[in-house]
């Protein structure tokens, strides 16, 4: 009982530590600057949150920005999950010349800093006439090196070589083996990858700032950066925008929380064995 109580206490402390930034954001967003400048700052949420939400909507085009971010993030999440599942299955269970070398190239590409590729990527996007279009942000994120590595490892654990060989002997084409054998076994890891891709794309700031015109095709993070501009920063207003912007990511995590825990626990169990 003492050991179990210690575990529960440690988990409770971790939960409090993890939720504190979100709670402090809510407290600041629901008060005025005068309340925050008091000798004893407020510790409980106030009643100005809805007023600040309305002010944020009036100052910036948050609605259109969230629609653009939703289109970008949903497209990237779905296509990235499917494309990386195909690539992971190929690297894990198909035999072809140069497989290991090609996989090494994929892993090496993940080590290149994102900032290093902004200039050449912008030149390509501009040459294709995609500047200030959602395609400029969507297409570069459709496949990720991390996603390929993630799905390859998942395929190595979930799809056996014997099952693939037996399906081919029974007359299944390669496409049917992927669709009927590999994909059902990889739905959990693919869902987790889609959720991570959605959150990454939703929170991306640097590339949308370069590839899109903030006044014409804004995204959520770019629009929110405008709230902190100027000589004076209204912190309750800025954190109100932050609070509104993270709602879709929180809802997505709530929907997929059980799937995430199951996939990570399964991976930990495989590692333990």
Automatic annotation (TrEMBL):
Compartments, as annotated in UniProt: Cell membrane
Primary localization: membrane
GO biological process, one term: transmembrane transport
Membrane-spanning parts: 70-94, 101-123, 129-150, 177-199, 235-257
Annotated ABC transmembrane type-1 domain residues: 66-256
GO cellular component, one term: plasma membrane
UniProt keywords, alphabetically: Cell membrane, Membrane, Transmembrane, Transmembrane helix, Transport
Leader peptide range in chain numbering: none
Membrane topology term: Multi-pass membrane protein
UniProt key word Transmembrane: yes
InterPro entries reported for this sequence: MetI-like, MetI-like_sf
One Pfam family it belongs to: BPD_transp_1
Similarity annotation: Belongs to the binding-protein-dependent transport system permease family.
The protein, known as: Sugar ABC transporter permease
Gene assigned in the entry: cebG
């Amino acid at each position: 009982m003492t050991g179990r109580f210690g575990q529960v206490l440690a988990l409770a402390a971790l939960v409090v530590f993890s939720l504190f930034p979100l709670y402090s954001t809510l407290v600041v967003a629901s008060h005025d600057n005068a309340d925050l400048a008091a000798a004893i700052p407020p510790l409980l949420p106030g009643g100005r949150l809805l007023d600040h939400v309305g002010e944020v909507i009036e100052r910036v085009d948050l609605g259109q920005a969230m629609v653009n971010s939703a289109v970008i993030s949903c497209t990237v999440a779905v296509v990235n999950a499917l494309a990386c599942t195909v690539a992971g299955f190929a690297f894990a269970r198909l035999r072809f010349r140069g497989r290991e070398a090609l996989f090494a190239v994929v892993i090496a590409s993940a080590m290149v800093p994102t900032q290093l590729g902004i200039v050449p990527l912008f030149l390509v996007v501009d040459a294709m006439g995609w500047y200030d279009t959602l395609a400029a942000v969507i297409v570069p994120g459709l496949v990720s090196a991390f996603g390929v590595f993630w799905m390859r490892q998942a395929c190595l654990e979930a799809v056996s070589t014997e099952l693939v060989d037996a399906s081919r002997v029974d007359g299944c084409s390669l496409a049917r083996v992927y669709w009927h054998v590999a994909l059902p076994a990889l739905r959990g890891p693919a869902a987790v990858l889609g959720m991570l891709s959605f959150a990454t794309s939703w929170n991306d700031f640097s590339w949308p700032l370069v590839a899109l015109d903030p006044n014409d095709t804004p995204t959520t993070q770019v629009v929110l950066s405008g709230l902190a501009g100027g000589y004076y920063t209204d912190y309750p207003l800025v954190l109100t925008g932050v609070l509104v912007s993270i709602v879709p990511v929180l809802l997505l995590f709530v929907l997929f929380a059980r799937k995430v825990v199951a996939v990570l626990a399964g991976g930990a169990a495989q590692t333990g064995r």
